Amino acid sequence: MPKQLAQERAHNFREVALGYQVQHALAESRRCLQCKAPKCIEGCPVGIEIPRFIKKIVEEDFEGAIRIIKEKNNLPGICGRVCPQERQCEATCILGKRAEPVAIGALERFAADRELGAGIKIANRPEPTGIKVAVVGSGPSSLTAAGDLAKSGHDVTIFEALHIAGGVLTYGIPEFRLPKAVVAAEIDYVKRLGVSIETNVVIGKTISIDEIFEAGYRAIFIGTGAGSPNFMNIPGENLNNIYSSNEFLTRTNLMKAYRFPEYETPVKMGRVAAVIGAGNVSMDAARTALRLGAEEAHIVYRRSEAEMPARAEEVGNAKEEGVRFQLLTAPIGYVGDAKGRVESMECVKMELGEPDESGRRRPMPIEGSKYSMRVDTVIVAIGQRPNPLLASSTQGLETRKDGTIVTLDDSGRTTREGIWAGGDIVTGEATVIDAMGAGKRAAAAIHLHVLSTLNRS
Amino acid sequence: MRNICKEVMPLHEVIRKELLAPKIHLMEVEVAPRMAAKILPGQFIVLRLDERGERIPLTPVSVNEKKGSLTVIFQEAGLSTKRLGALKEGDTISDVVGPLGRPTDIKRYGVVIAVGGGIGTACIYPEAKALKGAGNRVIGILGARTAELLILGEEMRSVSDETYIATDDGTKGHKGLVTDVLKEIIEGGEKVDLIVAVGPAIMMKAVADATRKQNVKTIVSLNPIMVDATGMCGACRVMVGGETKFTCVDGPGFDAHLVDFDNLLSRLKMYSEEERRALELYERNVVADALR
Hints:
The complex is a heterodimer.
Chain A: H1 6-9, H2 22-29, H3 50-58, H4 62-72, H5 76-82, H6 89-92, H7 104-118, E1 132-136, H8 140-151, E2 155-159, H9 168-171, H10 180-192, E3 196-198, H11 209-214, E4 217-222, E5 228-229, E6 242-244, H12 245-254, E7 272-276, H13 280-291, E8 296-300, H14 312-321, E9 324-326, E10 329-336, E11 342-355, E12 361-365, E13 371-374, E14 377-380, E15 384-385, H15 389-392, E16 419-421, H16 424-427, H17 432-456
Parallel strand pairs in A: 1-2, 1-4, 2-3, 4-16, 6-14, 7-8, 7-14, 8-9
Antiparallel strand pairs in A: 5-15, 10-11, 11-12, 11-13
Helix pairs in contact in A: 2-3, 2-7, 3-4, 3-7, 4-7, 5-7, 8-17, 12-13, 13-14
Chain B: E1 12-21, E2 24-30, H1 33-36, E3 44-48, E4 55-58, E5 60-64, E6 69-75, H2 79-85, E7 92-93, E8 95-100, E9 111-117, H3 121-133, E10 137-144, H4 153-159, E11 162-167, E12 174-175, H5 178-187, E13 194-198, H6 201-212, E14 218-221, E15 237-240, E16 243-246, H7 247-250, E17 253-255, H8 261-268, H9 272-291
Parallel strand pairs in B: 9-10, 9-13, 10-11, 11-12, 13-14
Antiparallel strand pairs in B: 1-2, 1-7, 2-6, 3-4, 3-8, 5-6, 14-17, 15-16
């Protein structure tokens, strides 16, 4: 897929991947073998009928293509950009055995962007059932569950704590990887399916789960994500200019600090930025640091390149833009200047030992390898835990030690009657499409549940 | 690509606005009654003026759940509070969310001293009122730089059994700090069961130091920089008893004797340069607009 040149894009917030032109899409779609028993569909967490939509692109029926995608996926512009297709549909594509698999993600994005450009059309709304269903949070799992429930005719309300909907799609993933206009357009589509969105409502604080039921909602889906940032709890971590990735990205994306002072929320970016961790969020943070003016952005990771959890594509993008990698390196503390600002990071070199419970080789510090690295800004991107706010304020909702909500079956049914949960709040930090798959399964189960309670009453 | 309009937000009208003292405003804002009904002493809200505004944490000084409104008191400091201060009755605010944080544990302790410094008095007043209501003997201590900047004197007197005032320049009450008065009371022999204190971080630090020796339980309500204020970002992290806590969800009230105030004071200054820049630009634009 064509991209902005690395030297240029490292200094602007415009989208990196430019998307297919019609001729690219046609050429790529013709590569699809239209397998009789397609493997790609098995790789898709929401079960999009991939060969069917690709065939529509071959036939230049782009509207037909997006219609097929939207039978299963309400957020194709988002998924086409951020799904790890190389581990899902494209991993199971038969062409991939000999050569490159069909670029399914790029084709999905193409079909979605065509429709966004022309203005999204809504099919006729179904007959309303009059049944109220509440959705807590407005990230990928919630938007999917809400969209599917609305398509079944239910009266769905999303409650979002922040001032804009979208969850991680809005506050977390940067503009240059997922333009907020795309997110806004797909949220608008979900609203036009009949979903109402109430922002600035913190469930567990502004209103409780019990009050939602008392207000006549017959079921609740909880998709509040994994929003509580982890820190390493090493000396000096609370010095100034050390951020969690959540804070750094929220300031930049949600509060638009990259347009400070026009937008009033600032973000600090010095000459040298260090990002701790090597997941997708870490790559987002390092690439954001460059765009905010850092001369050097370093990924500091305690394992080796092979173990990095980030998508290869994102690692590649980061490298092209000049992000440096300090692998087999772990910070053990920070030192500040007289004003309390971080000045240097103490590190040790690591070597890989025996595999640990995650199956990856355990990093072990090398004795005597301690050294110091000058830094101006540090971004701690070592993962998130669920925010305990909702579960701790709700009776009967069982959680695990790590704060994730216990589910009883594949649909995400929780230990409390009428409540389903899905996405990162159940699995811990995972991907957008996995969260969407969970939202989809929960919506199907909630649909059956509310119909059955209707018959009972 | 078509730029679809952002989330439609219900706006919050400014119902009442008064200048209490130079740069100190009282503002009553319309909110959903369901939200007003939930706010307890010690909790706070976040307010965002408009698309470009920061998320500003503020403690309501009072709420009216029937009418659906809450009242905040704030001082113009940076750009965001300056723009907030420029609002007039009938103007609107884009976002108000809450309640956030944990409420103060209101019960009968016995003798409680409530210390309010500067606009911190706006936070301490609802706590003092609730503590008085719970049957405590309440001693109020209010402080400000100068008499003109004292706020809520009458209100505090109405919920306190005794009220003391301290001003830096001696224009009213004791000449000196609130901690001078506080020390005099606790060293004077009266058995004090709880001290609640809200004010500038440096004042809360002084209160903690003043009550440490007698080991009087002291709760301070911390005021670090916040962004989302729902536990998501960690901007408001503070060291309490050697552990990192998020003020927005674990606080804002903490045991004063366990708080690392030096770290808090340092973190509060993190953006002073940016704040100055933003304010200068804003003021230049205001002047330019006026000349036009």
